[in-house]
Design goal:
The longest helix is centred in the first third of the chain and has 18 residues. Helix 1 packs across helix 8 and helix 9 packs parallel to helix 13. The termini are far apart. It contains 13 helices and ten strands. The strands form two sheets. Strands 3-2-1-4-5-6-9 form a seven-stranded parallel beta sheet, sandwiched between helices. With 297 residues, the protein is α/β, with parallel strands linked by helices.
Length: 297
Amino acid sequence: MILVVGATGDLGGRVARLLRVEGQDVRCLVRQSSDDTGLRELGMEVVRGDLTVPASLKAACQGIDTVIATATAMGRRLAGTSPATIRAVDEQGMSSLVDAAEAAGVRRFVYMSFTGADEAMGTPLDRAKLAIEGRLKGSAMQTVIVRSDAFQEVQLAPMARFDMAAGKAAVIGKGDTKRRWVATDDVAALLSVVALEPDPPVLIEVGGPESLTKNEAIAFAEELIHHKMIVRHMPRPIARLAVRLLNRRNDALSSLFGAGLLGDLREATWDDKPLRQRGINPKTARDFLREQARELT
């Protein structure tokens, strides 16, 4: 049986559904306040618990062969709906999950991280990801760390202030660094495959099939909507200052600015090879933007 931790989130939910389509037995760790109706309707087993409650993790890991961990406090922290900090959830809570998995005899642990994590800005999320990566490297379990570039659905959408409908975009830094934004579906497919393949690599760094800068993405969006977008740039020094000032006051915003700054500083050296090797035909960033433009007509 496979335990998915983060199944009520966007990425984890896609992973869980893919595994069920493949006929896998799936258990989901779900917080008390979360709606599990969709998971149960697909035949998944639901165990109530929380990363911040170690006892619930022990119960969730019993009888599990593989854990897939995609959970993060980021979304709830940004929305202001959770008092649990990134450190409490993504670092301490995830560490407790690793402990529980080891104690239960789990064979494989698949962990979701991000590309460039070892060169990041020192934000709460950066520290948490590096801490768990380090913890897993010393584990007796077979571990797979998947570092993904940022998702197209986030970076090229209004939530990241890339708003084609409003004709506005925000850029942290210069916007001329090549990235490989990747589709969430493609990363979900990758996670579901490496959870099952016989001998997966210890570390996978993956991005989309297209190398594109934020400025190039904006220019392409302008072609699609047939008018110029209003673009606001946040200079790198201001972004660095925001990361430092927000580090203690708002862990999610600090992490968000840090991720944006890292994306403007660190050119992608990874590509879509891990996807194509596994028969996954990845979506390009331009394809995603075309879809968004069609929805506006």
